Amino acid sequence: MDDLKTKYLGQIAEAGDENVLEAIRVAAVGKKGEVALKMRELGKMTPEERQVAGPALNALKDEINSALAAKKAALADAALDERLRTEWLDVTLPSRPHRQGSIHPVSQATEELTAIFAELGFSVAEGPRIETDWHNFDALNIPGHHPARAEMDTFYMHRAEGDNRPPHVLRTHTSPVQIRSMELQGAPIRVICPGGVYRADYDQTHTPMFHQVEGLAIDTDISMANLKWVLEEFVKAFFEVDGVDLRFRASHFPFTEPSAEVDIRCSWEGGQLKIGEGDDWLEILGSGMVHPQVIAAGGIDPEVYQGFAFGMGIDRIAMLKYGIPDLRAFFDSDLRWLRHYGFAALDMPNLHGGLSR
To answer: In this structure, is residue 99 part of a structural domain?
Structure first.
């Protein structure tokens, strides 16, 4: 045992790196190491011999393990000292320019409209992006033969053969959140539902994934006049103008009756859009009084309650406000574009301090 102790303690002291140290450990105290083989010989000894050899072998094993741990720590310290010696930094050098992150225009527009509608008494409601066919279409009074339900317009989730469950879709609008909110909260209710939606379309003004915000107000005495006032207040605040002219054109949406598309007075002088002046009109959203069947689908009595709803594309109103010509650029992940159109991360929009500072 004295020979083993001298042998391995000497090798440990001379080890130059952790690989050599590990090889010594395996040879000395590993499962097939010399100390382990000696311990197997204890079974062949007499009880008197085991009383002497057993504690001695355990003491040898502990001493070798302690020497290994100490040497490993010493090698680590030496490696750190060498790294600190070779890796240094001249703190007198001038600092490098720090690139700050920025807020995407879609996120900025979402924050702005959320702040505006919060002042008007609307809360924010959210729902799943993978929706049931019922919430996305049937509950919103969209019949089975409607073109929006065709596979060329809507992304349907794959179903295994023999699966008879109702189909699921990537939601085509955020209107299903209105149904879920009515089911959850009942009436009266005032919510907006911003979020991502999906449709099979792609060009300068359409992308397969884009963002919408829907608004819903249900109570016992709500009329189109309330809808007009809410939209006027929103447009004035969002585009930061003192006055606006809105034009309501009769239209048809399955989930509202009567329905109206809303245009805003504007001008295009020199290719620049100016809201609230001029002789041109620009469509910005769709709206109407909620269809009684939609109210009933949300679990509310349409004989007692009525309300209005509206919906608009967040990407579209962001394009109009910030002068962005191509919708596809929103999803290109071009940092140069984002640095140009982005917003400071800590400038949270509010009506009193200014929306888009």
So the answer is: no
Taking the model in full, what pTM does it have?
A: 0.66
3-state secondary structure the chain: CHHHHHHHHHHHHHCCCHHHHHHHHHHHHCCCCHHHHHHHHHHHCCHHHHHHHHHHHHHHHHHHHHHHHHHHHHHHHHHHHHHHHHCCCCCCCCCCCCCCCEECHHHHHHHHHHHHHHHCCCEECCCCCEEEHHHHCHHHCCCCCCHHHCCCCCCECCCCCCCCCCCEEECCCCHHHHHHHHHHHCCCEEEEEEEEEECCCCECCECCEEEEEEEEEEECCCCHHHHHHHHHHHHHHHHCCCCCCEEEEEEEECCEEEEEEEEEEEECHHHCCEECCCCEEEEEEEEEEECHHHHHHCCCCCCCCEEEEEEEEHHHHHHHHHCCCCHHHHHCCCHHHHHHHCEECCCCCECCCECCC
**Local confidence band at 259 (pLDDT 50, 70, 90 cut-offs):** very high
Same domain assignment for residues 189 and 329: yes
Domain span including residue 285: 106-344
Q: Note whether residue 340 is domain-resident.
A: yes
**Residue 349 forms part of a structural domain:** no
Supply the CATH number for residue 261's domain. 3.30.930.10
Same domain, 138 and 275: yes
3-42, pLDDT tens digit by residue? 777 887 888 888 888 888 888 888 888 878 787 787 777 7
**Structural domain count, the chain:** 2
